[in-house]
Design goal:
- The chain has three domains: 3-167, Ribosomal Protein S5, domain 2 (2-Layer Sandwich); 192-429, Rossmann fold; 433-501, Helicase, Ruva Protein, domain 3 (Orthogonal Bundle).
- 38% of the residues lie in helices and 17% in strands.
- The protein has helices spanning 41-56, 83-93, 120-129, 143-146, 160-167, 199-211, 225-229, 241-253, 275-279, 289-292, 308-313, 315-320, 363-371, 376-379, 392-396, 404-421, 435-441, 446-459, 463-480, 487-498, and strands at residues 3-11, 14-25, 32-36, 65-71, 103-104, 107-108, 114-115, 136-139, 154-157, 215-219, 266-267, 280-281, 286-287, 297-300, 322-326, 331-335, 339-344, 383-387.
- It has a five-stranded parallel β-sheet. Strands 1-2-4-3 form a four-stranded mixed β-sheet.
- Strand 1 (3-11) and strand 2 (14-25) form a beta hairpin.
- Helix 18 packs parallel to helix 20 (487-498).
- The longest helix is centred in the last third of the chain and has 18 residues, at 404-421.
- It binds adenosine-5'-diphosphate and magnesium ion.
- InterPro entries: AAA+_ATPase, CHLI-like, MCM_dom, Mg_chelat-rel, Mg_chelat-rel_C, Mg_chelatse_chII-like_cat_dom, P-loop_NTPase, Ribosomal_Su5_D2-typ_SF.
- This is Fis family transcriptional regulator.
- GO terms for molecular function: ATP binding; DNA binding.
Length: 501
């Protein structure tokens, strides 16, 4: 009878169960290990690791022909996490291990140590959802992730020898204790109060945070754009458990879930980053910055300096909240619902429009620079705000600014109102309203409609621009706790739009 064990494999964030079957033909004159079942290079290489790991752990490697079958045969298996189940299968087939039914994942080092693998939390979260009841074994180095998932019986081991002794009933180990997700915390080192002046920009960011609107800050160098962007997470609500788990499963898939404290993701890739690094993909179809920023903030500083194809490729994920990356024969989907915060200078030298500085860019340079962020991508940015250069009086002013915590309280209240209002239609923020929903949830009184009409005809605004004004106005009213939209709300929203024209 062939030995049988369970394991799992990960493609993107999709977990599939894998049955590992091992059969040994001891009479065969050929001594070899044959791994069948669509394994990638790492899987094919594992036979060398397994051979050394078993020998160096004091087990004789069986003679004869060994066939390892990874079922289902039509599913691609990836990575080194199948090392451990294959080794355990071989030990079971040659009688070193009692027959026992469990699921394991882990990479083996040549001396038999069980090494950390990517995606343990992703796998465990999925198994927990499915009500998986068999014992599960994961590497000791992945213990932090194992403690985050409830309703599973997970054991952590450092060495293959310990695992065999445990499975043979020679020693006792306890399953890991469920501890829950790491506690959420805010970065105490940064605060909105550190930023002097820039009242308008701060207000715009508060509105953006309240409705999860994408925002573009434009202003001369040194005005505080980068500084403000780095503080946005301090005014966003804490992650809900569901959001936190989504974030952690993505982090687990790239091997970064081993954390003690959790905060909202803030990703700030450099403008020289490749499309694959930002959008995701490559040989192993890994998630990009936009997915690592899921449920958090993607900050693109010096926005026009980003490669054009990167800016173009942001459109679909911004619209849909997920991204599909292509890879050989299949595609992988990752969530990517992030708040885009972009910053740019008004021109290449940064002085255009500054009354106290001389701009030495040609008109052509200025137009070309600004054109890079025009059209489709600008359509997805609801709020634009200009930051003037900081005046010396403002910089040296002794007046203290409002702390992040106070701003955050207002943002949280506004978000709760939105959540309640949209509970039944499956969205949670005003930024997700489409044209149809805007008609349903944003109604104007006569005077306000008149103001909007006037602005539209004066500035020749498109229907899309009107929608954006209405969405942002909805958020401004929500910040005030007002269900009805008034003149003031719309006037402020218009101001964030007109700066784009
Ligand atoms: N509004 C401000 N309040 C306090 N310090 C500021 C402000 N704006 C700029 N600074 C100082 O100038 C430095 C550069 O600001 P930065 O945010 O990088 O500007 P920008 O990104 O607009 O070019 C900051 O690290 C900070 O020390
Ligand atoms: Mg900057």
């Amino acid at each position: 009878m062939p030995a049988k064990l369970s394991s799992a494999t990960l493609v993107g964030l999709n977990v599939s169960l894998v049955e590992v079957e091992v059969d040994i033909d001891k009479k065969s004159v050929i001594h070899d290990v044959d791994i069948v079942g669509l394994g990638d290079t790492a899987v094919k290489e594992s036979k060398k690791r397994i051979k050394s790991a078993l020998k160096n752990s004091g087990f004789d490697f069986p003679h004869g022909k060994i066939v390892v079958n990874l079922a289902p045969a039509d599913l691609k298996k990836e990575g080194s996490l199948l090392d451990l189940p294959m080794a355990m299968g071989i030990l079971q087939a040659c009688g070193h291990l009692n027959e026992c039914d469990f699921l394991c994942v882990g990479e083996l080092s040549l001396d038999g140590h069980i090494r950390k693998v990517k995606g343990v939390l992703t796998i465990l979260a999925q198994l927990s959802k499915e009500g998986f009841s068999k014992p599960i074994v994961v590497p000791k180095e992945n213990e932090t992730e194992a403690k985050m998932v409830k309703n599973l019986k997970v054991f952590c081991f450092e060495h293959i020898k310990e695992l065999v002794e445990f499975m043979n009933g020679l020693v006792k180990y306890e399953p890991v204790k469920f501890e829950g997700l790491p506690p959420f915390s805010y970065d105490e080192d940064v605060d909105f109060a550190d930023v002097k002046g820039q009242t308008l920009a701060k207000r715009a960011l508060e509105v953006a945070a309240a409705g999860a609107h994408n925002v573009l800050m434009k202003g001369s160098p040194g005005a505080g754009k980068t500084m403000l962007a780095r503080r946005i997470c301090t005014i966003l609500p804490p992650l809900s458990d569901e959001e936190a788990l989504e974030v952690l499963t993505i982090y687990s898939a790239v091997g970064q879930a081993d954390i003690k404290k959790l905060s909202r993701p803030f990703r700030a890739p450099h403008h020289t980053a490749s499309t694959v690094a930002i959008i995701g993909g490559g040989n192993d179809a890994r998630p990009g910055e936009i997915s690592l920023a899921h449920n958090g903030v993607l900050f693109l500083d010096e926005f026009p300096e980003f490669r054009r194809d990167v800016i173009e490729a942001l459109r679909q994920p911004l619209e849909e909240g997920f991204v599909t990356v292509a890879r050989a024969k299949t595609t992988v989907t990752y969530p990517s619902r992030f708040m885009l915060v972009a910053a740019m200078n008004p021109c290449p030298c940064g002085n255009y429009g500054d009354p106290k500085a001389v701009c030495n860019c040609s008109p052509y340079d200025i137009v070309r620079y600004n054109k890079k962020v025009s059209g489709p991508i600008l359509d997805r940015i609801d709020i634009l705000v200009q930051l003037p250069r900081l005046e010396p009086e403002e910089y040296f002013s002794k007046n203290s600014s409002e702390k992040s915590e106070r701003i955050r309280e207002r943002v949280i209240k506004a978000r709760e109102i939105q959540k309640r209002r949209y509970r039944e239609i499956g969205i949670s923020t005003n930024s997700q309203l489409n044209a149809k929903l805007i008609k349903r949830f944003v109604q104007l009184d006569e005077k306000t409609e008149e103001l909007l009409k006037l602005t539209v005809s004066r500035y020749n605004l498109s229907a899309r621009s009107i929608d954006k004004i209405l969405k942002v106005a909805r958020t401004i009213a929500d910040l005030e706790g007002s269900e009805a939209l008034n003149y003031k709300h719309v006037a402020e929203a218009i101001q964030y739009k007109l700066q784009q024209e």
